[in-house]
Amino acid sequence: MRKKNIQKSNQKSKERKLLAATFVLAALIVGGSTFAWFTSEDTVTNKLSSKGGLKVLITEDFDRPDNWTPGVKVTKEVGAINAGNLDAFVRLSLPATNANITRLADSDAVVADAITIPDKAKELSAVEADAMEAGAYLVFAKNAAVSDPQEQSIRSESYKPTENGLYIFRRNASSSVDNESTAYTYAGYVYKDSKYYMISNVTKNSAKYVTETTQFESPVIDYSYVNTPDGEGKTNYISVTYGTGVNQIKVIINVDKDELKNWTFNDTDKTFYYNYVLASGKTTNKLIKSVELEAAQEAYYAFDYNLDVKVDAIQVGTGDANGNKTANEEADIVVPVNASWKTSAKLEAVYSYGGDSKYNPSSSEGTNDSVTWNVVS
Questions:
Q1: What are the tens digits of pLDDT across the range 6-34?
Q2: Is 177 in the same domain as 59?
Q3: Tens digit of pLDDT for each residue in 240-292?
Q4: Distance CA 55, CA 313 (A)
Q5: Are 90 and 229 in the same domain?
Q6: Domain boundary among 182, 214, 246
Q7: Which of 15, 19, 100, 341 is most buried, judged by most C-beta within 10 A?
Q8: What is each CA distance from 173 to 133, 184, 282, in whole angstroms?
Q9: Among 247, 259, 246, 230, which residue's Cα sits nearest to residue 238?
Q10: Cα 59 to Cα 228: distance, rounded to the nearest angstrom
């Protein structure tokens, strides 16, 4: 490997400035994948931007789940492809994307003989109400306990409330070995004017209303464990967290540890820089491997999440005075990058030629050229 630095003549300097003025900084944001419970479909949107022959796009392999649930890891392999006719430097980042979250919370206690539905009470469909009844026993109806619940086996297809009030159903959860003691679970709803409302903290004769609030929430993105193990020894991931405490919802974005060597993560701007010039028609190594929802989620009813990925690219200026596509100076390779990215990123690019001493971009394989991203003060 060797590096070249050659002084330019005044005339060539003017030509370089003119060429530099034509460099294009292309940015695109790809709305990746929308995961949802009950409320929306998954979508993938590709927005393309191209000027001057520079077109670097997101590429992905994505296994769209029918229902993304906590603990399920979804394949989501993300990289970049150079679809233009100019070689480019590439970097990837994750914009902070708001998520549409419907949260549930306990509200007022149900006063069975004075039904007043609170604002934003969660309404149930008739089908959901049927699920509360199926295979259970009615133990509380309207405003009083049922005297002999064992004689009132409720089936969803046969039982429908006709009077406003609180309705609670009981199921056997478990029995002791001698069957002398039994644990029960309770569920139910408030029925009023042909509508059903969700309840919680259900016992055999009391409950609370459940209210729901839907809003867009902004996340906290933590890059601490991209290269450093967490307290459980897990590494190579990014966490995206919405809310705090019992209301916390956390998405884990897993980085491919085998491919991470082909990228330099810069903690200053929370961005991944590709360690090679991406030649026209070539694809980067996949950086993101999968996404998963942490299992300890309780305080939501619906969660619509978009994994957005942003790619920036800068054209590589190459060629000698005769138009030959070989780099005669290191400055031809790194000047546009250092001028545009160095200030905000606090990184400086150093281009190194491969074993044949010629300009050979494209990928991490073989003896192709590489880029070293050095931290600067």
A1: 333 333 343 333 233 333 222 222 333 33
A2: no
A3: 999 888 788 889 999 998 889 999 999 999 999 999 988 888 888 889 999 98
A4: 8
A5: yes
A6: 214
A7: 341
A8: 15, 5, 58
A9: 230
A10: 27
